[in-house]
Specification:
Number of helices: 31
Helix content: 55-70%
Distance between the termini: 83 Å
Mean pLDDT: 90
Largest sheet: 7 strands, mixed
């Protein structure tokens, strides 16, 4: 019995849906990471993402107008998004970011799409989700890639100008993460449409969690097609299919809403029972019956690589701006709380992860902008960027404390804090994304021979044994090469290469090479020892996926520092860069050790340790000096910090504006404040009951002059406003009034 025959009995075959998922995406930088040789040359050759003049004009025009219109407190205390905001989104073509200009769309880049969604999300998660869905996985993108000319000509102009609002229904009560197991079905049959008998489908479905469904005018629908009567002349089970059905079509039910923790974007259900649709309603026509899963997986990049990561980045930038400004102006025990090391630890973590988030956002959208559909990279972006968003929000909540938990117009964190779990559950729950998708897809897509080997094992071709042996020889040679490289870099780490023109970057480049070389060996041995069981060993595969993810994050951090940071800002950026890159590499190393510590085969575990010389943690840890340095940098009003919080656009009177005014006022009078504190320390003046009293004493004693006094009084007024929280007279029942904006502001004790 040949080795191929033996393996055929052991290894499971690749299912149709798995094969379609593997065929749908591209391999990009993650391929070089998996193979143990991160390609920094390819990284540095990526076309830099920049906003075009048209994209900048949209950001500074309609987006800024929208931000000024949004009253998030009013939205969260209402049942619906305000009608004037929906009409503005339609009029200004916010739903057409990805639709080509020939159909009336804006045709913006992935980077611009991400920037727009992220900017809106800093003010309102509900409005951001409303904008992102039509520009993500849904009818628009599916029509662009797979629709017939007639479908594109009819629907795309209507989607571009808002005459049609789309939704896409995939998730059902019986099939969430296992989207391939949807029970919704369409039976091939004949029926009446527009007075004629035509060939079509009798479709029954029950869907939930469908964003925009309550206001949609056109329904994208995924279901399985069966042909029991053989009307199409082929097999009975034809596979997942996507159709586009007008809401007005008889039998279509759209309307009931869910309530996602009070975040007021439209999310709800759709149902239909034996609804007859003609073949023309199938996206791409009858020829695309059964191609739905391939179509869906191909189009997941926008949601996973653009929209949801943008939400994670927006929360990080809000957290950094809010926490750093509050830490600078809020004083306890006579000191700004940003000077306490407990606060500094949290603040540094926020700042470092905000930098890492922006780095990953830029690099991922650059890849998508090159026309790639890197399924593994977008899964990495979706999982880690939404999780990092959750991390930094928790830290910011700790810093702002009581101010963070009081909802109202001044609270800059509440909306994002409530909404962040939504991004973590959409487009596949994060547990699924981490445990099954990142390494599960990566091992098949990134290994140079594995997919071909599995195909040859299950092949029925007469020359299958010969082809298998040929691939096996290449695989063995590849694995031996991985082992030798990992041993060399483990025993002699100084032999790792680094080609950056910046000396401070080279150390991290070398570290990434060392970690990736070990990953390649561990992946090979996992396949050799565990074989098909690796698919079920989710804890192990997730850790290997973490290594891939964090090395990718480190590469993104390096690219951002080299490409997006100007020479004059490099000193300002350095604390952020070092913290973020070191964090990513330390996390990658932790994942490697956890993998080894839990590998079930003792002999293989010991061999892997020796083969890679991996006996201890070698990555330099984040130390207290780095924490202090970054926390101090994060509290300074530098150009680089403004760059890292560029998505946050304060509008007059909102919480960000109030905080920023107090913060900038303090930055402008630091020297005068130092004089007052020095005089207090020397007992040249007495401390007053309030800070205003202290300023009066300092002015009378000529410690500060009249100009300084006026400046400090202005700062104190703004500081007092910033540290206050909203308070309401609930007996006024203002939350029920449609005109709450001005009345709420009047009710708030400023």
């Amino acid at each position: 019995m040949s080795l191929r025959t033996q393996l055929r009995k052991i290894l499971p075959s690749i299912s149709v849906t798995e094969q379609e998922a593997l065929d749908a995406g591209d391999v990009w930088l993650e391929g070089s990471i998996y193979q143990g040789k991160p390609d920094f040359s390819a990284l540095r050759s990526v076309t830099e993402a920049k906003l075009s003049a048209e994209e900048q004009a949209f950001l500074y025009g309609p987006v800024n107008e929208l931000m000024a219109m949004i009253d998030e407190n009013h939205i969260q205390n209402s049942k619906h998004l305000p009608e004037h905001i929906l009409e503005f989104l339609k009029k200004e073509r916010f739903f057409s970011l990805i639709i080509p200009k020939q159909y009336g769309g804006l045709e913006f880049s992935p980077y611009a799409n991400s920037t727009i969604v992220g900017t809106i999300a800093t003010k309102s998660s509900a409005v951001a989700v409303t904008v992102m869905v039509p520009n993500s996985l849904g009818p628009g993108e599916l029509l662009l890639h797979y629709g017939t000319a007639e479908q594109q000509a009819h629907y795309l102009p209507r989607l571009a100008n808002g005459r049609d609002i789309p939704c896409f229904a995939l998730t059902s009560p019986e099939a969430g993460s296992d989207a391939g197991g949807i029970p919704d079905q369409g039976i091939v049959t004949k029926g009446m449409h527009e007075g004629k008998e035509v060939l079509g489908l009798e479709v029954t479905w029950d869907k939930r969690y469908i964003t925009l469904a309550p206001i949609a005018t056109v329904l994208g629908l995924a279901f399985k097609v069966f042909d029991p009567k053989g009307l199409l002349g082929g097999k009975e089970s034809l596979g997942i299919t996507c159709a586009l059905i007008p809401k007005s079509h008889p039998g279509v039910e759209l309307g009931n809403r869910h309530d996602p923790m009070g975040i007021r974007f439209y999310n709800g259900t759709t149902r239909g029972n034996k609804v007859f649709i003609p073949m023309d309603y199938i996206i791409g026509g009858q020829k695309n019956i059964g191609r739905g899963w391939q179509m869906l997986v191909s189009c997941l990049g926008a949601g996973r690589g653009i929209s949801l990561p943008a939400l994670g980045v927006s929360t990080s930038q809000v957290a950094l701006k809010s926490a750093s400004e509050y830490a600078a102006v809020r004083e306890q025990f006579g000191l700004a709380i940003g000077q306490f090391e407990g606060i500094q630890e949290k603040l540094a973590d926020i700042a470092g992860k905000a930098y890492l988030q922006e780095s990953m956002r830029v690099l991922t959208t650059e890849g998508l902008g090159m026309g790639l559909k890197p399924s593994v990279v977008t899964a990495i972006a979706k999982y880690h960027m939404t999780e990092l968003g959750r991390d930094v929000l928790d830290s910011a909540m700790d810093i702002l404390a009581g101010k963070a938990i009081q909802t109202g117009p001044q609270n800059t964190l509440a909306s994002g804090y409530v909404a962040q779990p939504i991004a973590i559950t959409v487009e596949g729950a994060n547990i699924l994304t981490r445990n099954l998708m990142i390494f599960g897809q990566g091992v098949m897509r990134c290994h140079p021979y594995l997919q071909s080997m599995v195909e040859s094992i299950h092949s029925e071709q007469p020359n299958a044994d010969k082809e298998f042996n040929k691939i096996l020889r290449k695989t063995v040679g590849y694995s031996i090469g991985n082992g030798l490289r990992a041993f060399k870099l483990g025993a002699f780490p100084f032999l790792a290469s680094g080609t950056s023109r910046l000396p401070e970057v080279v150390q991290y480049e070398k570290a990434a090479q060392q970690l990736a070389s070990k990953l390649a060996v561990y992946a090979d041995f996992s396949l050799l020892v565990l074989g098909g069981k690796l698919k079920q060993a989710e804890l192990l595969s997730a850790r290997l996926g973490d290594v891939m993810s964090f090395v990718y994050a480190a590469m993104a951090s390096i690219r951002y520092y080299e490409q997006k940071v100007s020479e004059q800002d490099r000193a300002q950026a350095a604390p952020y860069f070092h913290y973020a890159t070191r964090y990513a590499l330390v996390e990658a190393e932790k994942a490697l050790h956890k993998f080894l510590d839990n590998f079930p085969n003792t002999a293989a575990r010991r061999f892997m340790r020796v083969a890679t010389m991996n006996f201890s943690h070698r990555m330099p840890q984040i130390n207290d000096d780095m924490v202090r340095e970054l926390a101090k940098a994060a509290q300074l009003d530098t150009l680089f910090k403004q760059q890292l919080t560029h998505l946050v656009k304060p509008t007059p009177g909102d919480g960000h504006d109030i905080n920023e005014q107090a913060y900038k006022a303090k930055m402008a009078c630091l020297d005068s404040l130092a004089k007052v504190k020095k005089a207090l320390k020397k007992r040249e003046i007495k401390s007053g009951v309030t800070f205003s009293d202290t300023l009066n004493n300092a002015f009378v004693a000529s410690i500060i002059n009249e100009q300084e006094y006026v400046q400090l009084v202005d700062y104190n007024r703004k500081r007092e406003k910033a540290i206050r929280v909203d308070e309401f007279d609930f007996d006024l029942n203002l939350v029920e009034d449609k005109n709450t904006t001005e009345e709420l502001k009047a009710a708030v004790n400023q």
